[in-house]
Structures are given as C-alpha cells and as structure tokens.
Amino acid sequence: MKTYRFKRGGLAFEDRTAPDGCSSSIAYLPAISVLPLIQHAGPAARRLVDVGDRVSEGMLVGRGDGHGSANVHATVPGRVIRLAHWRMADGRVSEALVIRMEGSFARLGRPKETFAWEGMSPADLQRLIGERGVVVMEGAGRPLADLIGELRRDEKARTIVVQAVGDDPWSAADRAVLHERAAAVAEGMAILARAMSPAACVVAYAQAQRRGVDALVGAAESFKLKPALAPLAARYPQHQKRLLGETLKPFARDRGLDLGRLLPFSPSTLAAVYDAVRLNSPLIERCLALGGDAVKHKQVLRARLGTRIGDIIAECGGFVAEPQRLVVGSPLTGWTVADLDTPVTKTTTAVVALSREAIGGSTPRPCMGCGDCRGVCPVGLDPERLYKLILAGRPAEADADGAGQCIACACCAAVCPSRLPLRAAIGLRADRGAKA
Ligand code: SF4
Ligand code: SF4
After folding, report:
1. So what's the pLDDT on residue 96?
2. How remote is the CA of residue 363 from the centroid of ligand 2, in Å?
3. Is residue 426 within 6 Å of ligand 1 at its C-beta?
4. Would strands 158-164 and 93-101 be described as parallel, antiparallel, or unpaired?
5. CB 344 near ligand 1, within 6 Å
6. How would DSSP label each residue in 131-175?
7. What strands lie across the sheet with 200-205, from one edge to the other?
8. DSSP structure class, residue 393
9. Chain segment 206-247, per-residue pLDDT in tens
10. What's the rounded Cα separation, in Å, for the pair 376 and 255?
11. Which of 184, 272, 378, 422 is the most buried (most CB within 10 A)?
12. pTM of the prediction?
C-alpha cells in the first residue's frame, strides 16, 4: 500500500514517557476548579455569575462575546467562591471563576438522552454547536460556530479531514478518543458534513491507528458517508496543516479528487460535536495525555475543564523527580508553565513534567555549525542562518531568507546539540513579519 508523506525533513518523534493512548481513565472531579473565561482564540466570554452564586453542572456561566469568543459552562455543580485573574498557559490573562464543588450533578451518572439532528439545517447546527461552546480543541481554539458561519458564506470546495496521523506521541488523547469513541467521532464528522457541505471527507491516518479508523469508517456508513482513506507516514510534524495539504495533493491526484480547502479536525473535536448535538451536552470535559519522566504514572485522563494540573499530576501518582519544566501541550511546541494551579481548558491536549535530565540542561551553547537543523526543517529553511540574522538584529534579511515560512514545528530546536532556541526566535519572527 502506498503511504504518503511530506517532501523533506521532519522527525521520527518517539517518547517513551508519553502514554500509549490505547485507553483513557476518568479523572477525579475537582473539589476546587478554576474556570477561565478565555478558552478560545478570541476575546473573553462575558461573565454571567458572581461570587456567592450557585452553579449547576453544564450551566452557562460565560457568554461568547463576538467573533473568536465561545460560551463557557460550569463543569461541576458548586458555588463561585472567588473571581481571579489567571495567567493562562499561552500567556494571556483571563478572568476565571473559582468554583467549590458542592451539590448534585445534573448529568454525571444519569442516562444520556439523545436528540435527532438529521433534519436540522446548517444554520441550526451552527447555533447549537455555538451554544454548547464547542471549539477546535487544539491550537488557539477557534470556535466551530465561527468556522461554520464563514463556510456558509463561501461557495468554494472544501474537504473535512479527520486527523488520525499520530505523528506526535503527545497526541495520545486523540488516539484514545478514536479507539474508545469511534462511533461518536464518525457521527461528529457526519454532523459537520451536514453543517459545512464539504466536497469530500478524508481520514488521514497512520497504520498504527488503523483499528480505530476501521471502526470510524464502519460507523460512518450509517450516515451514508464513505470517507476516503489516506495512509500517511507518521512522521512529525505531519499533522501540521500546511504539510497535510502538501501530502494530500498527490493522494488527491491519484484518487481523482478535488479537495479544495482542507478542514482538519481531531477526533477530540469531532467527539465534542457529537456530544453537543446528539447528546445536547456542552463542552465541559476533555481527554488529555499526562506524562513525562518526572511523573509516576503516564496516562490519558478524561478531566473536567477547570481541573488544576497539580490535581491531575497528583492523580497520576505525583512526581518521582523534581520537575524542571512543566509543559501544557506537546514538549516540542507547548507552553511552559510555572504554576500547578494552571487549569485544564478546552485546548489542553497534554501535560508533561520533565526532569533536569530529560531537558538535558537548559543553557544554550554556541552554534557548532553541524547543519542538523537544516536537515530536519520540513519547509526547507536554514534555521542556523535565520537564527543568527535575527540575533544580529537583521530581521529584514531573515524575512528575505524565508523566516515568514516557518511553521514553528520545533524540529530544528529538537535536534540542535547546542540547545539553541531556534523555534522561539524564528517562529516569533514569522509571527511579527506576518503582522507587520
Ligand atoms: S521551527 Fe521553523 S525553522 Fe525550525 S524546523 Fe520548523 S519550520 Fe523550520
Ligand atoms: S543544529 Fe544547532 S548547532 Fe547545529 S548548525 Fe543548527 S543551530 Fe548550529
């Protein structure tokens, strides 16, 4: 069988300290949760409750406030005991509700009612998905209702792509969702197909995901969906949107497909769409991978949003070594955080605790000119040269040499024996250049 891959560079990213993603466990419910009003790409949701108010599980506590903003729901029943300004993993400061859990659960442990959606219009699905606060559950967290609205105004061809590439061991939560909830993922894809009218649906997968993909394809048949299967090499960073597009071009040619604009969605996002529409359930929990060499037990947990990462780590047996770096997201591209009270949000895919040994010392040394960074850059840049230009205060030359093409994948930084912060410098320049 022909396997497709992007043209150059990349890494075989393996990490024995990441969970395997075969299954997930339910995390303890948090006695105290911290629920930020920014868990999405845009402005904070407008707060609807105050200190002393009681909240119920799934109650709307923050209303999305314009483009890029999304509704926020209480994830446990309880009382708001404090309002705080919280620094989020991505550095933004958000107002957050500190909730002490008390009272009974409206949803947990109750039989799940299901709701028909097959007769709903795209506009109704957009409204429902928006009300339930569903966002793209990685990256910046773009609200899905915004995307559906944009696509409804746009006639161009597009393709829904289910991301099951597994090129990053820290996407273990998505692997677990695909294995455990393939039918829900398939139905989430069918719901989005109705809302977004794509020309095609494609499942981009690596061989290791085949079992979950087969279950997904089987479940999709009941919605008369027959997604095309694109076998991809599990080479990091294959999941990245630009490289996915590059990789799927020859696939589309071979199959005679006109894919148009690609709309990649993770299994977690598609399962959240299913929960929102079929189960009428707001987005109040997510799967995340927890591990790293400083943590006793690596595992995939289903945690309520607002659970503090310190509580999650305690549930995994606590630390076995002093953590020198705590990362929210994949260690290559995630955010370093200093606070164990940092909450799990809609876009928290992983939490990684690394010892000094794992990070191999953090002091950069001078470049030794080995060229390893050039060999792995998937967009063909010269990270060594770009880094030196940026450091020398010559950003215009860095831009002329393609700094703006950087996709911030961190392949260069991962292989650099001198531990130079290549991704941070070049990725930041790409951002600034784009905004200039
Ligand atoms: S972070 Fe940028 S420069 Fe470095 S390998 Fe990735 S694309 Fe290339
Ligand atoms: S990998 Fe690091 S040490 Fe080697 S050339 Fe690139 S920047 Fe220099």
Report:
1. 97
2. 14
3. yes
4. unpaired
5. no
6. HTT-B-SSTT--BHHHHHHHHHT--S-EEEEEEE---SGGGHHHH
7. 228-231, 200-205, 158-164, 261-265
8. T
9. 999 999 999 999 999 999 999 999 999 999 999 999 999 999
10. 29
11. 272
12. 0.95
